[in-house]
# Entry
Amino acid sequence: MKPVYINSVGSVSAQKTFDNSEFLNEITEYNASTVPVIAPNYKEYIPPAAARRMARGIKMSTVSSKNALTEAGIENIDAIIVGTGLGCIGDSERFVSDIIKNDEQFLTPTRFIQSSHNTVAGQIALGLGCKGHNFTFVHSAVSFESSLIDAKMMIENDEAGTVLVGGVDELVDHHVETHRLIGHIKKEPVASQELLQSKTEGMVMGEGAHFFVLSNQKAPSCYAELLAVKTFNTLSKERLEENVLAFLERQQLGIDDIDLAILGNNGDVNFDPYYDQLGTSLFKDTPQAYYKHLSGEFDTATGFAFWLANKIIKTQTLPEVVQLNAIVPAKLETILIYNQYRGENHSLTLIRKC
Amino acid sequence: MCKGVAITGMGAISAIGNNVQENYEALVSGKLGISRISKIDTVHKNDIMVGEIGMTNAQLKEKLGIAEETAVSRTALLAMLAAEEAVLQAGITDINDCETGLISGTTVGGMDQSEKYYFEYFETDEHWGHINGLHAGDSTQKLADHLGISESFVSTISTACSSAANAIMLGARMIKSGQLDRVIVGGTDSLCKFTINGFKTLMILSDTYNTPFDDNRKGLNLGEAAAYLVLESDEIVKRDQKKVLGYVKGYGNANDAFHQTASSENGDGAVLAMEKALKVSGLTPSDIDYINAHGTATPNNDLSEGRSLLRIFGDKVPEFSSTKAFTGHTLAVAGGVEAVYSVLALQNNVIYPNLNFTTPMKEFELLPQTTVKQKELHHVLSNSFGFGGNCSTLIFSKEA
# Structure
C-alpha cells in the first residue's frame, strides 16, 4: 500500500497557532469554562464583504485550509474531506431561534444554507474550483478521524493523490448554555493549568479549525507519515489496553515503539479515568502529553492533537506545557494519539517521522 | 481491490410504506404518499404538501420496544425501524461475529425535538434528555446501540441530499479495501420546521403534488424516511451461504463547485459522478438499463440533471424515472430509499413510473417512463445531488 504523507498543517485554535512558523511560542492561559479561538486577521484571507455574513466555522476553515495548501505548495487537490461535530451550529441556532420568535415568518435563506453540515467542504470546493471527491463526516468525537480514515483509504487505493482533510467546530452560546444545564460543560471556570485537578464534572469547551494536506508524494514541507487510524463506537476501560495493543500489533509495533502518547484528558472527573487507566498500565513507562487545557474540548479537538503531534515530529521539540508525566522521550519519532468523549467514540491515530 | 460488495438485507420506511414490501407495492400500484402535513403544526401547512410517515413517535417507540418517556428523536426512531428490517433480512444472528460497521447519513439529526424545546430547556428540565440529541451523530449512535454493534467503526455522513448515497459508497469502499467484512449503510431524516422553513426561504417548495421532469414543475415536496442496506464481503456471503439481493457495482462522488445551493446549468458535477461510477463498475453507458433519477422537481435540478443524462447517454438515454412524486424528497435518505428501490427494480425486473408528468420540458426531448414497465434489468444507476455541490452516483447490479 502507498504511504500517506502529511505534507502540511493549518490551525486556528484557542492558542496562536495560525502562524506555521511558530510552535506554541507564547501560551494563552484561560480561567473560563469556554475558550474561543484566537482569531487571525481574517481580512488577509477573505474579502470583508464576503466575511460579513460568513459563519465563523467557514472563516476559521478558510484560513486554516489556505495555510495548509500554501505550506504544501499546491493550489488544487483531488479531494476535500471535512469532519465537524456540529457544522456551522451558530447559523443553525439563529435559524431555529428566528423560526420560533417570528412564528415561521420573515426568514432569510443565508442562515439555513450555512447550517447545512457540508457548508465548509462545499465552500472550500467552490473557492478552489475543486470538483473531486467531497465528503463531510459529522460523528461527534470521531468526525475528524472518520475523515482521516477516508482520506487514507483514498490515497492507499489510488483514488486520489492529494487530499485536503480537516476538522472544524464552533463555540456557540445556546449550545454551551444547554450543555451546561446537563453537566457536559463545567459550571465553574477553571484555570488552564489546573484543568486536570478540577475534580468536577464536565469539560471546558473550545473551538477550532485544523486542516492538513495528505499525499502519496512526500513534499519538502512534509511533517510525518500517517500509519494508522481506528475508531471504536464503544470501548470499556477494561478492554482498552487489549485494543490499543492489537492496534499497534497490526502495525508490527509494541508499546516500546511509542515515543509519545498524546491523551485527550479534558478534566471531566467522570471520564478522565479512561486515560488514567492507560496512563497507569500500558502507558506507565511511555512519555505522555495532553492538550485540551490549551485547545478546549470540542468534537474535532483531535484536529489540534494531530496538529500538535505533527509539529512535535517536525520540530523535534516537546513543549513543556503539554507534558503530562515526567518521562523524557528518548526520541520523537512515533506518536500515538488516543481520545474518547464521555466514554464513547474512542479513536487511535498513529503517525511516524519520515 | 476486485472484491464484490453484496447486498444481503434491506429495510425502508417512507410515506408509502412501513417496510420494503409496502414500499414496493405502492411503487408498482402508483400509490403516492404525498399529503397535507398532519404531525407538525406549521404556519405553512396550507401552502405545502409533504411525504409524511403515518406512524407517530409513540407508535414507533411501541413497535421498537422503547419506553415512551425515553428521549429519542424521530430521526433515530425511523432509523431503528428500517435498520432492524435490513438486519433481519440479512439473517444476522450475531452482529459482532465479524468486523461490522455502521455508516448513516442524516441532515437534520435531532432537530425535530430540539426545535420544540429550544427555549423551554431554560424553564424546565422535563426535556433535557433531548439536549444532546441534536448533533447529527446521535441518531447513528442510538442506532448502533439498538443493533448491538460494539467496538466498531460507526460514523455519520452529512452531505445534504446525497448523504445516504455517500454512506453506501463509503461502506462499499471499506468492504472492497478489506477494512470491514460487513457494514450497515443508509440514512434517516424526519420532517421538522427547520427544513420546512429552510426550503421555504429558498422558494423551492411546491404548493401541490411535485411533478419531476415536467415543464410546469413548481418545486419539491419534503418527505421523511429511513432506509438501510446490509453490505457484506464475498467471504461472509460464502461463510454464511447468504442469499444475495444485488451488488453495489459502481460509485462516484464529485463536486459541482458551482454554487452553494444550485446545480450548474449543464450538470458538470453530475456528469463527473456518473463517469466515475461507470469507471469503477467497468460498465459503459449502454449497459445501464434503468436510471432512478434524483429528479426533485425543482426547476434547477431537473434541468441540470436532464442535461447531464444527455451528456452521458447521448441519444440513447435508457428508461428513467424519479420516485420523488411518491415519497417526496427525503433529503439525506433520498439515496438510501432509492437504493432500496433500485435493488427491488433489479429483483423484479420492473421500472417504476415517474408520476405526475404531463408536459415535456422545452429545453430537451427527454421523456421519463410514466407507467410501470417490465424489462429485464441487469444494471440500475441511481443519482443523488445535494447542497454544497455534492453529487453522487451509485450503480446496482444483479451480478458482482
In short: Residues 56-72 of chain A form the longest helix (17 residues). The domain at 5-215 of chain A is CATH 3.40.47.10 (Peroxisomal Thiolase; Chain A, domain 1). Chain A has two domains: 5-215, 224-352. Residues 245 and 255 of chain A are 7 Å apart (CA to CA).
